[in-house]
Design goal:
Layout lengths: L13 H10 L35 E2 L4 H9 L6 E4 L8 E4 L3 E4 L8 H16 L2 H12 L10 H6 L5 H30 L4 H13 L11 H8 L3 H8 L5
Parallel strand pairs: 2-4
Antiparallel strand pairs: 1-2, 3-4
Helix pairs in contact: 2-3, 2-6, 3-6, 3-7, 4-6, 6-9, 7-8
The chain binds zinc ion.
Length: about 240
């Protein structure tokens, strides 16, 4: 649901991973543990139990220090990265409550595009969009938010219910915009990435390729426009980057 689906083909990880480690790695000593003052506080709505298999066939992915820095800036203390075996789930997605999955082609993005992509998924986790979804679909279905402890039970309500999906779609769109701008700012502070080199370059690539993400959410062009007001903030945060 939170996939930023791309449309690159399958490929290996060698060059992209090397560039990432080279350009946007920082040092272990530079890892910041306190959340950024500008990052919104963790939401106080209820936690559901999420016990889905995070990613069958995935391998553990050792995160560069920059990704850990982004997680820390977002107030996330427990995070796991996985490498998908192929592109079937899109370039990146998050699995509740604490897993970010990247595809082989995601690791071939430029360092700042990849930092934005990872930052975007980290925002979904930090802002607990999956719990927010479970509450929303419960309430829209006429149930109490606490009718089940299990998030997957709640999300099953939306399976095959197009009307319900339509009613919550505005929430999903808001979550995507939030993940975009906060993710772009995480990439700025952790990696020194501008909006132009991170988010905008990522969306432009998508627009040029005919759109993958556009199918499920707002168009890349619309998301690009929504990011423009944050360009100056990103520039200022990028000066705090240790790279
Ligand atoms: Zn997303």
């Amino acid at each position: 649901m939170f996939a930023l689906a791309g449309n690159s083909g399958r490929s290996g990880i060698g060059r992209g991973l090397f560039l990432t480690l080279l350009v946007c790695a920082g040092s272990a000593q530079a890892i910041q543990t306190a959340p950024a003052a500008w990052f919104p506080d963790s939401p106080n709505f209820r936690h559901y139990v999420w016990d889905d298999q995070p990613c069958p066939g995935c391998k553990t992915l050792a995160p560069p220090p920059a990704w850990i820095r982004m997680a820390a800036l977002a107030g996330i203390s427990n995070i796991h990265f996985r490498l998908a075996p192929d592109e079937s789930g899109g370039e990146a997605y998050s699995v509740a409550p604490d897993v970010v999955v990247l595809s082989p082609s995601a690791l071939k993005l430029t360092p700042c595009e990849l930092a934005f992509l990872v930052g975007h998924e980290l925002v979904h986790i930090a802002r607990r969009h999956f719990d927010e979804d479970a509450i929303a679909v419960s309430v829209y279905s006429g149930k109490r938010a606490n009718w089940t402890r299990h998030g997957s039970d709640a999300m099953q309500l939306v399976d095959g219910d197009f009307g319900l999906a339509m009613r919550v779609s505005h929430l999903w769109q808001d979550q995507e915009f939030e993940a975009d701008w906060l993710g772009a700012l995480l990439a700025a502070q952790a990696c020194g990435c501008s909006i132009e080199s991170g988010a905008m370059a990522y969306f432009r690539r998508d627009i040029d390729a005919g759109g993958g993400i556009a199918a499920e959410h707002s168009s890349s062009a619309e998301r690009l426009r929504a990011l423009m007001p944050f360009a100056e903030s990103a520039k200022r945060l990028a000066t705090r980057s240790s790279n």
